[in-house]
Structure formats: structure tokens, C-alpha cells
Design goal:
ABC transporter transmembrane region fold, 4-stranded antiparallel beta sheet
Length: about 600
């Protein structure tokens, strides 16, 4: 992490540019108020001095005149009113700007995340970067602006107050020059140390959120309770939080020492100047107004100096958070951007040419020089032991990953040259770990083709009937309108029911390619077989890639591709591979002993 002054300045310029793009009027208003407020304390101090001096003069006069006194009183009233109004307006503008920035920053962060390749999220450094970015909300950006404007306001107030006090007591300049720099440097060092600590905690903070999720999530609470993991998980969470608190405590103690030293030294120094000024006033070298204003304004100057330094160090830490957000934005989105769209005439023919792939952070290739041709409308099953690369290969064909070398084509066109959204419109993918959407039953299906059928009940029901889940949905408490999941609803499904819904969601999309990656793991062998019989009819005309460990299902494929250690070692029909007596036949014998009998294929 670059924490130099230039980096901080770039971060601040980025925030100002972002704010100007979103709400230039609010930015202009806040800047104007910052300059207005910066001069008010010094002006009020001078008014107070002049008022006191005017009162003393009129009291000594033989014929007192209230006019000079009233002038300063009315001027003071006007300045106080301006200060009150500007404070209220600043609060309003800050709140409005926080909302505007929050919408912009969070939306842009989500958009950027949505444009990243899937493999990027498997990188630990990116996970830490994303965690920092998610905590960089619009309110933090607004707080940074507030600290920036506050720093300007405080600095100008300090300068203007110092000018007034120097005019009264010239030695004020010497005290400010000697006391302020050491305090600023110490606070700056401590702020940098605190920011570095926070930056380095990203992984540990994700661990604390993970422990909290295990202890409170409906998905995990039953198992953690049964295993009695709560005390151990709480202890791990507590240990991390205590470590954070201990690290913070060191910073807090160092900050306390610095503040105490600055406060005591500045108090003694300014009171020394006050004593000298008072003695001079007794000898006629200064006025009563000089003494009164120096007494009040010197305290305000000390407070202003401390506030200005606090805001500057807060600004420094805030720009580090902005740098973390910019760091996340530096994660590259999909490598190529193409406008070549995939049309509805897509046939689904897929070709892989010497494809290699290795996951980020790993040195072991998952796929090695994989070449394969899948004809339009062909059903191909990928078979092999766990870890042989089947799912990775399927995700590459869906362009969820990008090959390290080699290429994959759809209808003869390189996937990397195709516009990504139109490409994904031609792919239906039922994942092994499919998502359980907290939404209505109807929406769970419609999400498969949400641009066209979300909110179209007739189309959703048509898909449900075709996929064989209509009766299941109508039996729910509120039918298709039943809110599924425990996060926002009161009705949940079994694993097998969720899988049937995921299959229906995949068939909602009129795609040319259908990929099924162990989508029926929660079903028994007979239910899986019946589902694939139905799926084969539904997928008629589509290119289908099937991944399953159940050979009764695999045998329905037109061709079976056998993988081992990231390579294709055999391919052919079920009968051909059995007769060959190779790796497939060996796997078949092992699995056949464990699987219950299912109906033979018609």
C-alpha cells in the first residue's frame, strides 16, 4: 500500500472529481461555507475586542454615546447569525451529499465486481481488496470531504486567529511555530500506523465475519450446534477482536501522550503570553479589550490547532480508505471487450483447441492441452474422478474462466471475441452448488430469463409445467407467490426441491448450450434418471454438456468424454467404452457396485 503524500493527494483529487461529477452544486456550497466559517472566529474576536474597548471609552466619557457600542453589537449579531446558518446549511449539504455518494460508490463497486472474471474472486488478495472496498461507503467519502473542508476551515481559522493575536501579542507567532510542528508530525506518524494496521487486517476481519456467519446463519447453525463448535468459534472470534483491541490500545496510548504534551505545553506557553500582556496592560501598554480577547481567543486558537491537526490526520486515514477502493477498481475486468454479438441463430457447436488452465495462486495446471469438438445439438457427458477438471472445463466453455493458453470457439468464433452478455444468453448452466435465491417460487424460475419473463406469470407457469415442477409449486402455502428461504420468508424447500427449481430455472432460458454439472446430487438414482429423461426431451436441439457420477445417467449421452488429471484420455459411447475395457470401464465397475438399479433407457 502506497501511503506517501502524493498518493494521498491523488486520492483526494479522485474524491473531489467524483463529487463534482455527482453533485457540483453541493460541492460548491460546501467549499463556500468552509471559507465563510473560516473567518468568523477571528472576526468575532476582533468585534469582541472592539466592543470592550468601545464600552471602556464610553464609560470614561463625560457624555457616553451608545452608537459606537451598538455598532459592534449589531456586527457581532450578524456574524453569529451567519455562523449559525452556515452550520445548519453545511449539515444539510453533507447529508444530501452522503446519500448521493453512497448510491454512486456502492453501485460502481458492484458494477466493477460484476465485470471481473470469476477466477479473480478466488485470489486472496482480491478478497481482501473487495472487503476494503465494501467498507468504503459513500458516507466514508463524505466524511473524507468533511475532513478536507474542515481542515481548510480550521487552518484558515487558526491563521486568522493567530493574526489577531499576533497583532495583540507578537510572541504568539513564536509559540505557534514551536509547538505545532512536533505535534503534527507525531499525529501524522500515528495516523499512518493506524491506517497500516487497518489495511493489514482485511483477512482477519473476514475471518471474524466468517465466524459470526457460522454462529448465526440458518444454513450452518444446526451443524455447528450439533458439533458443539460454538465455544471454539467464539474463542477464535474473541481472540481476533482482542488482538485488534490490543493493537488499537498502543495507538490510543501514544495519541494520548502526544495530546497531553501538546495541551500542557501550549497552555503554559499561552498563559505565559497572557501574563506578559496583562502586566503590559497595567502599565498602559495594552487595553482591557486586548487582555480579554487574548484570554478567550488564545484558548480558541489552541483548540483550533488541535482540531486542525486531528482533521488533517483523519484526512490522511480517509485517503487511505479511498486508495483501498481505487486498488479494488484496479483489478482488471474481463480481458477483451467485443461488440460481436451472438445471435439467436447460434447452433451451439463448441471446439476446444489445446486448452490449458491454472487457477490463480496455484502452480499446478488443472487442464493440460485439452482438445475437443462438440457438434451442434450433441449431448456429451464428462466423466472422471473428482479433481480431474470436469467442472473447470465446463466453466471455460461458458466463459466463466479464460484459458491460460489455447482457445475455445462457439460456432467457429473465439469466445474471447464475443460480447459477453449475448454469449451468456446462449448458455444455461445448472451448477453443482447452485444458488438458493431468497425470492418467490415464480421469481426463482423467472431469473433464468428475467429480461423476458420476470413478472409474466403465464410464461413462468409454462416453464414450470414443462420442467415438471408445477404441482410442487401449487402445493406451497401461497403457490407461485410463496417466498422461499428463511432470510425473508417462512417457507423452505428440501435439497431435492431446490434442485428441481434450479433445473426449471435453467430451462427457462432459450439457450443453444445447456451445461448440467451434477445438478441432481440431492436426488436418488431413480429420480435423477427420470429427471434426465425429461431433460433430454426438453434439451432437444440444444448442445448439452453433462457432468455426473451416475453411469445410468451418463449412458444416455451421445458421447462420453473421460478425463484424468486434466487430460482427455478416452471418448466414445457407453457401449464402446465398456467394450474397450479402459479407465471408463474400471470406473463403471466400481460405481455399479454402489448404485441402486434404475430403469433401463427406452
Amino acid at each position: 500500500m502506497d501511503s506517501g503524500l502524493r498518493s494521498r493527494a491523488r486520492a483526494l483529487r479522485w474524491v473531489l472529481r467524483l463529487t463534482w461529477e455527482i453533485a457540483p452544486g453541493f460541492l460548491i456550497g460546501l467549499i463556500s461555507i468552509a471559507f465563510i466559517q473560516s473567518g468568523i472566529p477571528a472576526a468575532l474576536a476582533w468585534v469582541a475586542k472592539s466592543l470592550i474597548d468601545a464600552v471602556v471609552i464610553e464609560l470614561d466619557a463625560s457624555n457616553p454615546n451608545a452608537a459606537p457600542v451598538m455598532f459592534w453589537l449589531w456586527l457581532g449579531l450578524g456574524l453569529a447569525a451567519v455562523e449559525a446558518v452556515s452550520r445548519a446549511v453545511r449539515e444539510y449539504l453533507s447529508q444530501r451529499l452522503a446519500d448521493e455518494l453512497n448510491v454512486k460508490v456502492t453501485t460502481e463497486t458492484l458494477k466493477h465486481a460484476a465485470g471481473l472474471e470469476i477466477k479473480v474472486f478466488e485470489d486472496l488478495a482480491v478478497q481482501d481488496s473487495l472487503d476494503r472496498a465494501k467498507r468504503m461507503t459513500g458516507k466514508r467519502v463524505t466524511a473524507l470531504l468533511y475532513q478536507g473542508f474542515g481542515s481548510i476551515t480550521s487552518a484558515l481559522q487558526v491563521v486568522s486567529l493567530a493574526a489577531v493575536l499576533v497583532a495583540i501579542q507578537p510572541l504568539t507567532l513564536l509559540v505557534v511555530g514551536l509547538v505545532t510542528p512536533p505535534f503534527l508530525i507525531v499525529r501524522w506518524i500515528l495516523a499512518r500506523r493506524a491506517a497500516d494496521l487497518e489495511y493489514e487486517r482485511a483477512t482477519k476481519r473476514r475471518w471474524t465475519m466468517y465466524f459470526m456467519e457460522l454462529l448465526t446463519s440458518q444454513k450452518s447453525v444446526a451443524e455447528t450446534r450439533l458439533l458443539g463448535l460454538a465455544p471454539m468459534l467464539i474463542q477464535k472470534y474473541h481472540a481476533l477482536m482482542v488482538a485488534f483491541a490490543d493493537e488499537n490500545s498502543l495507538i490510543y496510548r501514544s495519541t494520548l501522550r502526544a495530546v497531553l504534551i501538546f495541551s500542557l505545553v501550549s497552555v503554559v506557553a499561552f498563559y505565559g503570553l497572557l501574563i506578559e500582556l496583562t502586566l503590559r496592560a497595567l502599565n498602559g501598554g495594552a487595553t482591557l479589550g486586548d487582555v480579554a480577547v487574548f484570554f478567550a481567543a488564545s484558548a480558541q486558537l489552541r483548540s483550533g490547532l488541535e482540531q486542525c491537526i486531528n482533521l488533517l490526520t483523519g484526512l490522511f486515514q480517509g485517503t487511505l480508505h479511498v486508495s483501498a477502493l481505487k486498488e479494488f477498481y484496479q483489478n482488471k475486468t474481463r480481458g477483451r471487450v467485443s461488440t460481436e454479438r451472438v445471435t439467436d441463430e447460434c447452433t451451439g457447436a463448441i471446439t476446444l483447441e489445446k486448452v490449458d488452465f491454472t487457477y490463480p495462486g496455484s502452480s499446478v495446471p488443472v487442464l493440460k492441452e485439452v482438445s475437443l469438438e462438440i457438434g451442434a445439438g450433441e449431448t456429451v457427458a464428462l466423466v472422471g474422478e473428482n479433481g480431474c477438471g470436469k467442472t473447470t472445463l465446463a466453466k471455460l466453455m461458458a466463459r466463466l474462466y479464460t484459458p491460460n493458453s489455447g482457445r475455445i470457439t462457439l460456432d467457429g468464433r473465439d469466445l474471447q471475441e464475443l460480447e459477453i452478455r449475448s454469449l451468456h444468453r446462449q448458455i444455461s448452466f445448472i451448477f453443482q452448488k447452485f444458488t438458493l435465491y431468497e425470492a418467490t417460487a415464480a421469481d426463482n424460475i423467472a431469473y433464468g430469463d428475467w429480461q423476458n419473463i420476470l413478472g409474466d406469470r403465464a410464461q413462468v407457469e409454462k416453464v414450470a409445467q414443462t420442467a415438471g415442477v408445477h404441482d410442487m409449486l401449487t402445493s406451497m402455502p401461497e403457490g407461485y407467490d410463496t417466498m422461499l428461504g428463511r432470510a425473508f420468508g417462512k417457507f423452505d424447500l428440501s435439497g431435492g426441491q431446490w434442485q428441481k427449481l434450479a433445473v426449471a430455472r435453467a430451462f427457462a432460458r432459450p439457450s443453444a448450450v445447456l451445461i448440467l454439472d451434477e445438478p441432481t446430487a440431492a436426488l436418488d438414482a431413480r429420480s435423477e434418471y427420470e429427471l434426465f429423461v425429461r431433460a433430454r426431451k426438453l434439451a432437444e436441439g440444444r448442445t448439452t454438456i453433462l457432468i455426473s457420477h451416475r453411469f445410468s445417467t451418463v449412458s444416455m449421452a451421445d458421447r462420453i468424454v473421460v478425463m484424468d488429471e486434466g487430460r482427455i484420455i478416452e471418448q466414445g459411447s457407453h457401449t464402446e467404452l465398456l467394450n474397450r475395457g479402459g479407465h471408463y470401464a474400471e470406473l463403471y465397475k466400481l460405481h455399479d457396485r454402489q448404485m441402486p438399479a434404475v430403469p433401463s433407457q427406452d
